[in-house]
């Protein structure tokens, strides 16, 4: 393993730790600040790995997470979404790379239109889309991060408790009682 590859992988795991810490936060500001730091490190990680689309998307995330903390202007969601689309049109070479663009658009609207539970729901949807991308790319650290992040976000919005309740009700009552 070369030093460059070792550094890239190390930065990837540092970013994973920061992102998971951010996903555990109940405060919107800590959630956004953690993702801001993770985006910066992830951009370097993808740059070292040679993935231009992923690096540009993370730089876009860096701008989004930075601005949404001070400015909740809805026009910014449209501007960042347009930026993601331009990255896609100019740099996506494979159909699955558009998953990063889709997740980026969802995240743009989540960050500038929502907060609290609604923000976490949109971040969960974006994480699940990014999970699909990680599967297509065979990125094990990406899959791990998106799965764990999705679990943490789903826990915070009470989604996991709803599934357990529905499952237990399904065992206790007949289908027609719903």
- Total number of strands: 0
Overall number of structural domains = 1
Q: Which spans of ≥5 residues are poorly predicted at pLDDT below 50? A: 172-178
Radius of gyration, whole Å: 17 Å
The fraction of residues in strands falls at: under 5%
Characterize the main sheet: none
- Structural class based on helices, strands and sheet pairing: mainly alpha
Order of helices and strands: HHHHHHHH
H/I helix tally: 8
What do the pLDDT scores average to?
Answer: 87
Inertia-based shape: globular
N- and C-termini, Cα separation: 57 Å
Percent helix? over 70%
Strand and helix layout:
Elements: H1 3-24, H2 28-49, H3 52-68, H4 74-91, H5 98-113, H6 116-137, H7 140-156, H8 159-172
Helix pairs in contact: 1-2, 1-7, 2-3, 3-4, 3-5, 4-5, 5-6, 6-7
Structural notes for this entry:
Helix content is 83%, strand content 0%. The protein is mainly α and 178 residues long. It has one domain.
Question: Outline of this structure?
Answer:
The chain has about 180 residues and is mainly α.
Which tags fit this structure?
178 residues; mainly alpha; 8 helices; disordered C terminus
